[in-house]
Amino acid sequence: MKGSHQQGGPLWVTIALASCAVLLAVSIVKSPGAAFEASLQGLTLWWRIVFPGLLPFLVLSQMLVAYGFVHALGTVLNPLLQKGLGAPGVAGWVLPFGLIAGFPAAAEASAQLYTTGRITARQAEKLAAAGHFCNPMLIIVVVGTGFLHKPGLGLLLAAVHGIAGIAAGLTLHKLILQSRKDLYQAGPEPVRTGTRLQQMVHSIEEARRLDGRSFGKLLGDTVASAVQTLMMIGGYMLIFAVVIRMIEYHIPGIGSTFILPGLLEVHLGSYAAGASSTSVPALQAALIGAILGFSGLCAYLQVRAVLRPVGIGTGGFLVTRILHGSYAYVLTLLLWKPLLKLFPGAAPVFGDISTDDRMRNSILQLPGWSQSFSLMEWQFITLLFITACLILFAIIWRFRSSVSH
């Protein structure tokens, strides 16, 4: 573990960040109305979509660990995870969990598995990178319905987003991080005897014994931790919404492009790409897919805030984000016409409406809590479906391996 002076970064970084903070404060004082409006838009998006969409899954992740479900699932997924990401099977649930819950759920889960000694620091870094996805509810509802007014396009973007993310994670492991040694060695995997079902039951019993918390204590701890994480996410969303608005306010013309919002914040960036003047629907959809895959500086800071305090690096995460965005861009262009046949009417119709006006209109159309609960039900069903598919695939993989030997 590095010292505190090293964690704080070089002096020039501190000076630069302090200068940016001063400039932002001066800009807010000079333009309080624009800052308040941007903050309100970020708060609305966080409260109506992100908070109800992520809270159940952040709580669920910690309860799955405490009750040993992830350890049981790991005994089944061990061959698949070792081949694909070089991680033990105990972490097999992180990938589908991140795909359904959205960021930074996978980073939270990876950090928790690392701190309990189940995986190494390098494995946690790769899992956090490979399991980093935008919440599908955000893509379908916020981007597809709220921003573009085309739910079918949201489904298309969500499908490409998932495929590109998995491909980026596999690429990171095979081409970049496979030859690098782990920084820390996790404890050895225990040798199991008996049938696969007996091993799963034993894993559950052992994990529950090691945790030891009652249900009331466990529920209170998980809810408190999840709310703390969501408050961090909300703070990032609000401050970056204000930063983008202040830059656009004081530098006229820069807000007409999607580059700045796309680099800083994923939701505002995808919206700006949809509001751009490009007349080719496939190209605009590809730009939105690239922004969703890259996730922006805001998402990186959220993941860094989770991983760095426990000693997990983020270099592989940045590489994966670039790969994810690139794959999503290319896949959207290649699969645009075939997927458009599966989602008829998904082609967007983009008008020449200003970014600010379109943002105001889409914020007003965001679903409330009742619609969010309905969508969370489908998220949970999808999580179970993906987990079941991974288990089935792992069983087939193990069966084929045993036959070949």
TrEMBL record:
<keyword id="KW-0472">Membrane</keyword>
<dbReference type="Pfam" id="PF07670">
    <property type="entry name" value="Gate"/>
</dbReference>
<feature type="transmembrane region" description="Helical">
    <location>
        <begin position="90"/>
        <end position="107"/>
    </location>
</feature>
<feature type="transmembrane region" description="Helical">
    <location>
        <begin position="378"/>
        <end position="399"/>
    </location>
</feature>
<feature type="transmembrane region" description="Helical">
    <location>
        <begin position="218"/>
        <end position="244"/>
    </location>
</feature>
<feature type="transmembrane region" description="Helical">
    <location>
        <begin position="127"/>
        <end position="147"/>
    </location>
</feature>
<feature type="transmembrane region" description="Helical">
    <location>
        <begin position="12"/>
        <end position="29"/>
    </location>
</feature>
<feature type="transmembrane region" description="Helical">
    <location>
        <begin position="153"/>
        <end position="172"/>
    </location>
</feature>
<protein>
    <submittedName>
        <fullName>Nucleoside recognition domain-containing protein</fullName>
    </submittedName>
</protein>
<keyword id="KW-1133">Transmembrane helix</keyword>
<feature type="transmembrane region" description="Helical">
    <location>
        <begin position="315"/>
        <end position="336"/>
    </location>
</feature>
<feature type="domain" description="Nucleoside transporter/FeoB GTPase Gate">
    <location>
        <begin position="49"/>
        <end position="143"/>
    </location>
</feature>
<keyword id="KW-0812">Transmembrane</keyword>
<feature type="transmembrane region" description="Helical">
    <location>
        <begin position="282"/>
        <end position="303"/>
    </location>
</feature>
<dbReference type="InterPro" id="IPR011642">
    <property type="entry name" value="Gate_dom"/>
</dbReference>
<feature type="transmembrane region" description="Helical">
    <location>
        <begin position="49"/>
        <end position="70"/>
    </location>
</feature>
